[in-house]
């Protein structure tokens, strides 16, 4: 799928995580602050230079959502597409103010994925490559949260977290690993349709591992505290993606039962 992310991408994703002092995929830490007027999706796509990137992101958005609409068509869950908001610097989301330092995230209150184009700029500039599959993986992970929302999984987990605060982090990890697995399920579908290029899957696995809690913690604090994990270790995250990719079956992503 376009130019590969490769090793350099892994490093850059990690470097940005360090710079911001948090996991770039830390997309569940947003406290709901009431629904506010959301801007039009793609409003940031006003410069010609951004068009190819925005087109690629739009392609992935549609492809992931078509895939889930098809997968869920035989289930009791009706697929409603999420919307994507591309922005720069900061924006109001249904889950409160969003800033580029927060990294991409999904807001269940307005069913939108928020992606900062500046974040992808950094990836591209430091990489000297577009890192297409890293972007695709990020988006597929966020849309995995949308699927969880449609299926009511996120609400169930939040309830469990409230009644078992001591297990809140562990439950968060399970939710995140399921989203990684769902991203893998989509990647499986792209392989079936022969849209994958050699190296794409390795790039996704590398990116998933790079944002593992253990890697982030080791680099930022020099030590690893498993109890504070909220997204899973490098091995857990890449394994979850791989499980979805190899099975193509969302049933294999049942990390929560
Ligand atoms: Zn996530």
Task: Characterise the protein shown here.
It is a single chain. This protein has 257 residues and is mostly helical. The protein has one domain. The chain has 9 helices and 5 strands; from the N terminus they run ααβββββααααααα. The strands form 2 sheets. A 3-stranded mixed beta sheet has the order 1-5-4. The chain has a two-stranded antiparallel sheet with strand order 2-3. Helix 1 crosses helix 3 and helix 4 packs across helix 6. The longest helix is centred in the C-terminal third of the chain and has 25 residues. The chain is globular and about 45 Å long. It binds zinc ion. Zinc ion binds next to helix 4 and helix 6.
| Major beta sheet, strand line-up | 1-5-4
Overall structural class, as computed from helix and strand content, comes to mainly alpha
Overall tally of structural domains? 1
How far apart, in Å, are the first and last alpha carbons?
33 Å
Mean pLDDT: 78
**How much of the sequence is in beta strands?**
5-15%
Number of helical runs?
9
What order do the helices and strands follow?
A: HHEEEEEHHHHHHH
> Hetero groups bound?
zinc ion
